[in-house]
Each structure stands twice: as C-alpha cells, then as structure tokens.
C-alpha cells in the first residue's frame, strides 16, 4: 500500500516538474546558455533583447531540418538589417554529425550547440525542428513544431509582424 502511494506521488511530482519547465507562448525566453559554433563563445538568449529572435532547435538526422536551413538563410539575409537574429541550436550528441550536415547546408545565421540538451529540456523541445519566435522584449510569441513548406509564409509573416512592433 505504501509502495503504491509512493509511486503515485513520484509520478505526480514528475509530471508537475515537467509541466513547470515547459516553455509556452507568452513567457519570457528562459535563461539558458548555449555555445556558439564553432568558437564556443556562450550565447545567452536574454542578451538578445531588443532584437526579434528566431530560435531553431535542429539535429543532423532530421529531414525537415535540412529543408528549413535554406528558408532560414533566405529570411536571415533579407531581414537581419531590420533586427532579426536567427540562432539555430544543434542538439546532436556528436559534433561531427552537425559538421557533416553543415558541409551540405551551410548557414548564414548564428549557430549554437546544446551538447547536454539543457536548453532543449527547458524549452520542452518535442519535435525536430522546433522553432520559437521571440519578440524584442524577450517574450516567446510563436512556437512551431516541425517544418513544412506550406507554413513558410506563416513563419515569414509572423517574423515580419514582430519586426514591425515597437520595442
């Protein structure tokens, strides 16, 4: 009897803690750090306040991630002068996998590594890629799971909407 009660309490605690850390629209971007690739300089998302930040969690084995890179390159090249900052956060365990991916699909935007998946856990990443659009005040405004060609215009218009808002 005590064993069952303990199991129930542990399960409730687990689900409560998982939910407590899940990032949702309307929340401030969390204070987690990733490291720029390849120079390993720390990147703190909160230090990017004042810019619209497109955070994309990706992995080398992810087919939709490969499709998203040309879009992010285009978006970055067109809108960086307007205050868009794209950070693509790799979650591969082996950096060599990411390097191989980037040989075929180079990025014109900032790359980061989340080697221990600390930020991925805090953001509650549930799909690859997972995209978080953050406004100039550091608030998560949109979340996209996966990448579909049919959603490109929606993503672009959401980014442009955030860029047109006053800081």
Q: Which keywords apply here?
A:
167 residues, alpha/beta, Glutaredoxin, seven-stranded mixed beta sheet, globular, disordered N terminus
Q: Can you describe what's shown?
A:
InterPro entries: Redoxin (IPR013740), Thioredoxin-like_sf (IPR036249), Thioredoxin_domain (IPR013766), Thioredoxin_ResA/DsbE_sf (IPR050553). With 167 residues, the chain is α/β, with parallel strands linked by helices. It has one domain (27-164): Glutaredoxin (3-Layer(aba) Sandwich). The protein is 40% helix and 22% strand. It has a 7-stranded mixed β-sheet. The radius of gyration is 17 Å and the shape is globular.
CATH class category label: Alpha Beta
Total number of strands: 7
Give the count of helical stretches: 5
SSE arrangement, N to C: HEEEHEHEHEEH
Q: Name the overall outline.
A: globular
Helix proportion range: 25-40%
Strand order of the largest sheet: 2-1-5-4-3-6-7
Q: How many distinct folded domains? A: 1
State the CATH superfamily name: Glutaredoxin
Q: Structural class per helix/strand content?
A: alpha/beta
| Distance between the first and last residues' Cα | 57 Å
CATH architecture: 3-Layer(aba) Sandwich
Protein name: Redoxin domain protein
Domain Thioredoxin: 23-164
Pfam families: Redoxin
GO molecular function: oxidoreductase activity
């Amino acid at each position: 009897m005590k064993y069952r009660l303990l199991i129930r309490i542990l399960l409730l605690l687990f689900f409560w803690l998982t939910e407590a850390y899940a990032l949702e629209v309307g929340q401030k971007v969390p204070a987690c750090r990733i490291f720029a690739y390849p120079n390993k300089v720390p990147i703190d998302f909160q230090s990017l306040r004042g810019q619209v930040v497109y955070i994309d969690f990706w992995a080398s084995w992810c087919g939709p991630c490969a499709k998203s890179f040309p879009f992010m390159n285009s978006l970055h090249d067109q809108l960086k002068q307007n205050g868009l900052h794209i950070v693509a956060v790799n979650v591969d365990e082996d950096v060599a996998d990411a390097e191989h991916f980037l040989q075929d699909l180079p990025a014109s935007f900032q790359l980061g590594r989340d080697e221990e998946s600390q930020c991925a856990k805090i953001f509650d990443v549930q799909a690859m890629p997972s995209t978080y659009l953050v406004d100039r005040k550091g608030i998560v405004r949109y979340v996209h799971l996966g990448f579909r060609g049919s959603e490109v215009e929606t993503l672009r218009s959401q980014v442009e909407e955030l860029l047109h808002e006053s800081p």
